[in-house]
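Holo prediction. Input below; ligand is magnesium ion.
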Amino acid sequence: MTTEALKVNGLSVRYPLRGGVLGRIQHFFTAVEDLSFSLAEGEVLAIVGESGCGKSTLAQALVGLAPWSAGKLTLFGEALNPASRKDLKQIRSQMQMVFQDPFSSLNPRQTISEILIYPLLARGFSRGESAIKIEKTLALVGLSTDVLSRFPHAFSGGQRQRIGIARSLVLSPKILICDEVTSALDVSVQAQVLQVLDEIRRQEGISLIFISHDMQVVRALADRVLVMYLGQVMEMGEVSRVLASPKHPYTEALIKSIPTLDRSAPPEILDGEWVSTAPSSTGCRFAPRCKKRIPACTEKPIDLVSVDFVLSRCLLNRPF
Ligand SMILES: Nc1ncnc2c1ncn2[C@@H]1O[C@H](COP(=O)(O)OP(=O)(O)OP(=O)(O)O)[C@@H](O)[C@H]1O
Ligand SMILES: [Mg+2]
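Structure of the complex:
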C-alpha cells in the first residue's frame, strides 16, 4: 500500500504589492490559487508551466518561505501549520528544498564542511554524528570527502549543485523539492545531477517534487505531472498519460513547443504571454490564448474533472 507523504488542500498565496512614497499595500497579487495535490511516498511529482505561473511560489510556500493566505498542509497524516514556528521546524525536518542557482545558493565564505555541518549542529546532532551523516550523504551524491575543506568557488556548476543537494539531504528529509535544479547547468552535467536524484529516490525512498521547464526531463524522471497556469492547476495525472494524450489545450501547447531536431516538424510556439492576457475573473484563465476556445470557456468557473484518469480543467474532452 502506498503511504501519502504530503497533501495540500486549497493552497492560495497572495503577495502584497506596495506603492506610493510611503510604500503602503495598494493591492494583492494572487500567485497561487486554491491549489490541491498529494504526493505518495517515493513518488516523483513534476510541476511544469511557463515562467511566472507560480511554481517557485508553490515550492516556497511548502517550506514556509511564502505566505499561505489559505489552505491546509498534511505531512504523513499530520496536519501542520506553516505559519507556526513549531510546526515549521517539523515541516523542514521532513521536507527540504534545493534551489535553482548552484552559484548563489552556497555561501562563498564557508567551506563545504561548514555548509554541511551547520544545519546538523543546529538540529542538535553532535560533531561525531554529523561527520557520519555527511560522509554518507556525500557518497549518495557521488562526491568524496576531499571536497570538505574547499570553498564553493573551487567547484564546477554540476559539483556545486550536488553539494546543494547534499546540504538538503544531510537532514534526512522524506521529501525533496527541486526547483529547476538543472536549468543553470549544461546538458551533460544536467544528466549527472538527474541521475543522482533518481538514485536518491531509489535508494532512500525519498519523494521528489520536481519543478522543471523541460518536458523531456519530466518524462524521464517523474511519475505524475501537475501542469500550472497563472497559479492554478490546469491538468494533473500520470506522466505517460498526460504526455501521450493531454486533456488541456495548454498542456498540448507546452508539449508542442518542445524544440526538436526534425526540420519537417518544427515546434509550435505558444502565442501571447500570460502577462498580456490578464485572467478573466470568470472562466478558464488560458482562454484568451487558447486556439480551441468556445464561448462557454469564459462564462463560468471551470472545475478540475477526471477524464481518463487525468484531472483536467477544460470543457473540451469531457465525457458529458
Ligand atoms: N515576493 C513577491 N512579491 C510579489 N510578487 C511575487 C513575489 N514572488 C513572486 N511574485 C510573482 O508571483 C508570480 C509567480 O512567480 P514564481 O516565481 O512563483 O513563478 P515561476 O513559475 O517559478 O517562474 P519561473 O519559471 O520563471 O521560475 C510572478 O508573477 C511573480 O512576479
Ligand atoms: Mg521559479
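The first helix runs from residue 55 to 62. That is the main takeaway for now.
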